[in-house]
Design a protein that fits this description.
single chain, 345 residues, 14 helices, alpha+beta
Length: 345
């Protein structure tokens, strides 16, 4: 079996049967593989892909460029007779094949999180998504930036909560490791500095905790030219005097409780649902809801059709559906009739 190994957390890496693949020839070939493999549940229209990667050339040239990139991907990712292809390529669409023989560290990272195994997930997070990678398209770069930030924020929040959890269980060594890893990813985050200081102090290493505070001072001053927050200074003073009782509760408070939708506020922004029953809306409504709720986080879901066929009503129904879930912290409704969008209106 031909085994494909995709490693994107920390750097861009591809292996085929344990042999490193390096001859992509262009960053757009690499970017296309990234884009398809990180959204394997979606079949992309060829025109969408060609416009995404070559927005500044004619549609004809963009389609030619896409064909060449797909040809290159097929050539460097071959499969033996009878094996599942890594890509489904038709005259109209392109899709990564989740049934092919492959592994992807991003997929494994997401799956471990979904299973509540944050510590194991963080073992896969070697750094930000494909660190240092860039492509020629600003449109692709925008999608890539959002994807990178999503994963990075998820990792940081997990480490923040893991440090607090381990301190609550008196696993101070594990708490130190989580805080140190947090600082590797976000060296200016004072909560991570405080977690490290407290974990060291609670483990009996008062000197190490004060050294961690000195390091915090140096990082903030040298890199940002600022002083630490009052909470950080207060913690250092309590460590200095040995007043550690109740400090674990102080750190726990810093982890924000789950937020919920303010349904009444959102309903004020929406048009009321029609009194009459809408016929023929069930299938498009289910499809739109599925797209918005997908774990792969589509950044844009478009409702396409002629004017007057009910797209706005359908979108309104979708928003009302998600009012009854915990999928989002907030929902905005912007009408094309508005001359400008005022947040919270």
């Amino acid at each position: 079996m031909t085994r494909l190994n995709l490693r994107f957390l920390g750097s861009f890496g591809v292996q085929l049967d344990k042999q490193e693949v390096t001859h992509f020839r262009s960053t757009n070939v690499q970017g296309l593989l990234l884009y398809l493999s990180l959204q394997p549940d979606r079949a992309f229209n060829r025109e969408v892909l060609s416009t995404l990667f070559w927005p500044e050339v004619s549609q004809s040239n963009a389609k030619t460029n896409l064909r060449q990139c797909l040809h290159r991907l097929r050539k460097i990712l071959p499969q033996a007779t009878g094996e599942e292809p890594f890509l489904f390529i038709t005259r109209k669409t392109v899709q990564f094949n989740v049934s092919s023989d492959y592994t992807c560290d991003v997929h494994a990272f997401e799956q471990l999180f979904a299973a509540g195994k944050e510590s194991e997930a963080m073992g896969l997070y070697k750094g930000e998504l494909a660190a240092g990678f860039t492509a020629d398209s600003l449109e692709f770069e925008e999608w890539f930036r959002l994807e990178r930030e999503y994963l990075h924020t998820k990792a940081i929040n997990a480490l923040k909560e893991l440090a607090v959890k381990e301190m609550g269980s008196q696993n101070y060594q594990a708490a130190q490791e989580a805080a140190q890893r947090h600082l590797q990813l976000d060296p200016w985050n004072e909560q991570a500095h405080r977690s490290l200081m407290l974990a060291l102090a609670l483990s009996g290493d008062r000197s190490g905790a004060l050294n961690a505070y000195d390091n915090c001072l140096n990082v903030l001053y040298e890199e940002l030219g600022i002083d630490p927050e009052a909470e950080t200074i207060a913690l250092s003073e309590k460590i200095e005097t040995g007043e550690l009782d109740g400090l674990i509760e102080t750190v726990e408070v810093e982890v924000a409780p789950p937020q919920t939708l303010n349904k009444s506020q959102i309903l004020d922004r929406l048009e009321p649902l029609p009194d009459q029953k809408l016929f023929g809306i069930e299938k498009p409504l289910a499809k739109a809801v599925e797209a918005v709720a997908a774990e792969t986080r589509p950044w844009l879901v478009a409702l396409d059709g002629l004017g007057g066929i009910g797209k706005t009503t359908l979108a309104n129904e979708v928003v009302h559906h998600f009012l009854e879930t915990d999928r989002f912290l907030d929902i905005a409704w912007v009408s094309a009739k508005q001359e400008e969008y005022v947040s919270g209106k």
